[in-house]
Amino acid sequence: MLGRVSSLVTILIFAQTGILNSHHEAAHWSCDSNTDTHVQAHFNPGRITLDGQVDDWKDIDGSAFSVLPALDPDADKAYNGGKMTVKASHDGKDVFFMLQVDGDYTYSEGYSNKTASVAFMFQIGENASYHRMGGCEEEPDTCTSKSCKGHEVDLMHFSIGKAIPGRLYGGNLLDNSEGNGGDRFSHLVDLYCWNPHCRYLDGYGPSVNDTSAQNDWKGTWWHSSLTHSGAENNGSPST
Ligand SMILES: *[C@@H]1O[C@H](CO)[C@@H](O)[C@H](O)[C@H]1NC(C)=O
Ligand SMILES: *[C@@H]1O[C@H](CO)[C@@H](O)[C@H](O)[C@H]1NC(C)=O
Ligand SMILES: *[C@@H]1O[C@H](CO)[C@@H](O)[C@H](O)[C@H]1NC(C)=O
User: What is the b/e burial string over 211-228, where b = at least 16 CB atoms within 10 angstroms of the residue's CB?
Assistant: First the structure.
């Protein structure tokens, strides 16, 4: 993680119900950061519990977006199962995000390459572009924190796979004690990069390992078709 206070994320994937609040719907997809789309986090101390349930988000406004293919973000090719709603909130210490996608839960176990996964990307460097994850022009063998200075972006990536619904993933004592942004339970990692080919788990780079990096994100997921009793072992992997 680069230069940010600790942050938390709640993710609810493929919720089947829910009216979408569409305040700032993006009409045209763009990699340009100068868009009118803003997700604003208001101060709501003590409101959000990180458990994958969205009841505590219901009075918080969100923005709805179509889910478009990354490499061909054409409106014709939007996911037709439902829209994605993003909400944000903060309590003065942590910022919380909720991502909700309408639709059935269709993951087939074993196909980790077909699982739902999401990433949030934040601009850190003043010259970082949304397009090409920071947009540094250097090649993988020449990009360094010096040659790509100013193009830093920070990402939180959560791949659902076999993650147990309701359990917290992400920053944990084991990985943080080794000084990296990994999640050895392989679901929620914290990384930073300068372009799509120069991306590193916090701390683990090709030429330098920084042993003071930490993953400060935590995340969990839920689907409305699941019952509460389905989530056994509802403990954090970090304990
Ligand atoms: C996805 O995973 C399945 C199961 O492990 C494997 O058979 C398949 O070849 C993988 N597909 C790709 C494109 O990697
Ligand atoms: C960003 O780009 C401008 C213009 O090229 C340059 O003057 C500035 O130093 C850059 N910022 C960083 C942090 O490298
Ligand atoms: C950084 O850490 C990784 C994982 O432990 C290791 O494979 C790699 O050799 C280390 N790199 C350096 C330069 O120490």
Answer: eebbbbbbbbbbbbeeee
Cα(172)–Cα(13) distance, rounded to whole angstroms? 22
The closest ligand to the CA of 109 turns out to be 1
- Matching residue, tokens 């939007």: 78
CB-based burial label for 154 (10 Å; 0-12, 13-18, 19+): buried
- Name the helix (H) or strand (E) containing 177: helix 173-177
- Measured in Å, residue 209 CA sits from the centre of ligand 3 at 6
Cα distance between residue 10 and residue 116, in whole Å: 15
| Tens-digit pLDDT profile for residues 39-76 | 889 999 999 999 999 999 999 999 988 888 877 778 88
Residue 27 token pair: 């009409």
Ligand 1 atom 4: residue of nearest CA: 111
Contacts of 234 (CB under 8 A, 6+ apart): 164, 166, 167
Distance CA 48, CA 59 (A): 11
Look at the block and give the residue holding tokens 């120069």. 198
pLDDT digits (tens, 9 = 90+) for 126-176: 999 888 889 999 988 888 889 999 999 998 889 888 889 999 998 777 777
Tokens linked to 26: 């993006």
CA distance 216 to 85: 23
CA nearest to 9, candidates 83, 109, 117, 107: 117
Q: In Å, how far from its chain's centre is CA 126?
A: 21
